[in-house]
Amino acid sequence: MDAAAPYLTNRADPTAPGQVLGPISGLVNAADWLYDHWYLLTLAIAVCWGGGELLVRRLAANASAQRMALELVPTQHFDPSLEEIFRRGVQLARASTAMPWWAPRRAKAVQIRLRADGSTPLRYRIEGPAGGERLLSITPFGPDVTVERARPILDKPRDHVVRAEFLLRGKPTEPLREVPLTPDPLQPLVDAVADLRAELGDLAEIRLDIQRAPKWALRARRLQLMGAARRSERREAQRSARWLRQDAGGIEDSWGWQLQQLLSDHPSPGSGRRLVMPPVPRRVEPAEALGKLAEDDHLIRVQLLAMCASNTAGRAQARLAQLQAALDVFGGRSRWAMRGWRLGPWRIGADHWPTRLGFERRWNLGHCRPPRSNWVRLEELTGLLKPPTTHCRLPVLASDLPTFSLGKPELLLQGIYRSPDGRQRLVATYAEETLFEVGVGKAGGGKTERALAQAIGWAHAGGGLVFVDPHRDSWPRALPFLAHETLMPRIALIDLGGLGPHPQVSSWNPLGMHHGQAAHEVVEAIADAYASALAWDDTTAPRALTILTAALTVLIAVNEAACQASRPQDQATLFHIRALLTDTAFRTAALTAVADRLDEETRAWWQAVFPTLPTDAFAVVLNPITRLAANPLTRAFLGQPAGVYNIRAAMDSRMVVWVCPGGNGPTDRLLTALLARDLLRAARSRRDTPPEKRVPFRPYFDELITLTGAAPETIAAMFEDLRKYKCHIHGMTQLLSRLPTPVRQSLLQNASTLATTAGSKSAIAPVTAEWGDDPSPDRIATMERFEHYISMNVHGRRIGPIQLRGPHLDDVFTTLARTQQAGALHRAALANAQALPLKKLTERAAGQLGRVAAFLAEHSPADSTVHLQKEKEFG
Asked: CA 516 to CA 520: how far, in whole Å?
């Protein structure tokens, strides 16, 4: 028992030498084994790391599959404030965490995609977690930005692709440059992709991933920065001490200091050097060392990726260089720089191994793995947190404004657009959306030339039109470009200028019923035209309107009877109003012949009221007719019983009609008013045709001031009503202020296209006011000749105002010119209008009263007793 005690005591004592050396020896042996078999440890670590990375990638890919996409479409007046943009940034940062708890951090991000592929100037798209859709759909930008659910984008493979990742270089604690909102911070990026060509496969896209940083990463970054700042301060203190000692040693070793010691009465004791106190390192302030990382609020990590592609060699690389230059705008003491290494002319970056696979994975899946230097505050990203604003000058692409092609009836030529890269193209609007058009500008500025080019292009595409030009200059200008065999059967000329020794004139009977018009519509059209040209209304001239309406009713009834009797050559004209009012025999014969065609109220007026009217009551009605009859041209044109001019038939058969009234005097204004009112009546009569079968027709009115002086209410009604009947008005004028108020208000309200050339600021101001004075009158007033500012409607939205060069016929339609055939076209146009020599038409008009009287005599009751009774009744 006593012999075993020491053994028991030794086993129970933990401080015994054997108990301590045993575990240490085991650890040493294990370390020695691991040292000899290090590759096994490395393999185990690699397997664990690889397995963990695969697991994380799988989870991140599953989380990315639940992402959603929104596209933000701003209006032209989108102008957010800094506070609205900042709030949007807060929403994006908050939405980045709306992921399942198991999602890896690389999947917890919101991505802003700025994309240009030639279809739009710059698409602004946001992709993020599906759980953040509600948060991201409601923006602080209000109604100026439309948020739409976006579909996935499928890109076709391009032949040439370049990639780049950007990181922050410079002092890591310094913010990016504060870029003002005016002009738009996105303008450099928009300019960089302004010359993209979709037909070449050009594509450029920038993706900005926003991620809320983990606290431990931020603390680690702060510790790193603080440590670097302290080391820098210690190095600076050591450098200062070294320089201080060198300076002190240099002074003591100098001849001057030694001489001073010899001459001094009390030299400093001792032979050693003076003691130098080294400077103490300055205390590092966290706010100064950490800069923008000092505060936690609104601090995020970002990842900035870019990709450019094209089917043409060199264009993708050039585009990437443009994007890099655009990002330099945001640079200050901290700037965006392309990640990688440069070896002479070669750059090793995201396009090369080993970083390319990681780049493509992040690009395709939307993962965010930012460099450790990419820490920013939301205020630094204000330029990228919003779509393009009203202060951004967007290029006009073919998808915004189609390219004009001759012969396509769906396109309407507008002008020549010069793109940012200097290329020029003819642009157009869609005909079905160009309802009404207004062109303003000084004389010789190019507004008529532009209208002629548009009309000629429309005619060659098979469209119908009427070009009303009081001065006739447009006809010889357009003649060579319309002189084509396929167009000659469709072109008619109504020329009342009386040019040449033997003028030829067409014919028109406003009262004619041989085209099947409704009687009441014809009466209303003529009476309204008179009232408009002579400023009559129910207050100033009620009796004159009554007399004219009653006379027109009787004469149109006579014409209906003549047409039903198959004798259209015996119809009455406007000039027979005088005979009806002043010639008792003619009046009695007319009323007797058509008594059964008149309603009871009309017959009662002629029986009871007309005999009581004084003779001078007719002067106000007959005076305009007398002036029309005094002009041989208008008498010949309006004095034919069965006129050829039929604007309704021209509309339905796609005719190209040129109407030259001949002047702007009082007589010409009355004729213009009659023509304008007849056009309005004819267009409204198309209600008898189903809307889908109505053929589009385009009246062009040159010199609106002259035309509206004759028929202001008629022109205003055209701009208000004719859209329903597919009759689209194009008007040109020098001054909007000279137009009557109803016309000016109607055309500005309904104009699909509004254009102006250079002119005085007072003349241009009404147009620029419609554009919010952007561009300003000062800018437009200094434009060159043939330059236009135009706003247009395309796909239901307004394009512009943008600057276009007006198309010059000799430039854009050079291949259409047929100068040798111009004479043939002129003769064909007169033949299509059935124009006859003026002398022949004048003789026919002079004898028309006798033919009408003969017809009435033949159709009056044969009983003389009845005839005498009718003559007594009608005075």
From this structure: 12
